[in-house]
């Protein structure tokens, strides 16, 4: 088992770190094959950037003969803030002859892949059984709670009480 991480970076990517970070959150912790499939069918622009970076990280890992490429998973996916394009603000026309600045932001995309070990998979299977048994217990309690409780009589308002008292006299 190799606990070695393989890194691939796309520096100065022409996308904001905020938009790329959403895609990074999507693939973090997933198997590489699952992440590539997810990125391929995700309509966001950042997905194509990350797809290339994940493929590069897998290629870096495949250079090591001891690594099984099919057992790789994305252990870290980041989108760090980069500089502004040409290190300056741009300007567009504003109201009453003013100039309104805006920034074309860049980011640094980083992917780390690592080979998955067998031990955590066995533990996750046992956790799945426990979760199923707990959900079964919850379903029986939910069945009890779905029974309708007896309705209580609504208290009469003062106006209704006065009108009923006047009718009785």
Work out the strand percent.
Answer: 15-25%
The CATH architecture of the domain at 5-87 and 102-118 is Alpha-Beta Complex
Number of strands: 5
Name the poorly predicted regions: none
Strand order of the largest sheet: 1-5-2
Mean pLDDT: 83
The biggest sheet, with number of strands, parallel, antiparallel or mixed sense and barrel status, is: 3 strands, antiparallel
**Helix proportion:** 40-55%
The topology string of helices and strands comes to EHHHEEEEHH
Structural class: alpha+beta
CATH superfamily label of the domain at 5-87 and 102-118: Ribosomal protein L22/L17
The helix count comes to: 5
The geometry reads as: flat
* CATH top level class name of the domain at 5-87 and 102-118: Alpha Beta
Task: Find the CATH topology of the domain at 5-87 and 102-118.
Answer: Ribosomal Protein L22, Chain A
Cα gyration radius (Å): 29 Å
Termini separation: 93 Å
Oligomer: single chain
């Amino acid at each position: 088992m190799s606990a070695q991480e393989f890194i691939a970076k796309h520096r100065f990517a022409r996308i904001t770190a905020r938009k790329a970070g959403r895609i990074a959150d999507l693939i973090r912790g997933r198997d590489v094959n699952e992440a590539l499939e997810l990125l391929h069918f995700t309509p966001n622009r950042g997905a194509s950037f990350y797809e290339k970076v994940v493929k590069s990280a897998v290629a870096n890992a495949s250079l090591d003969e001891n690594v099984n490429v099919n057992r790789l998973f994305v252990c870290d996916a980041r989108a760090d803030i980069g500089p502004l394009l040409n290190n300056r603000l741009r300007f567009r026309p504003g109201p009453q002859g003013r100039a309104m600045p805006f920034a074309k932001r860049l980011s640094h995309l980083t992917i780390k892949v690592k080979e998955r070990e067998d031990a955590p998979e066995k533990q996750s299977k046992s956790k799945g059984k426990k979760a199923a048994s707990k959900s079964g217990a919850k379903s029986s309690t939910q069945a009890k709670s779905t029974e309708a409780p007896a309705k209580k009589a609504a208290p009469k308002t003062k106006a209704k009480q006065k009108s009923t008292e006047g009718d009785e006299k």
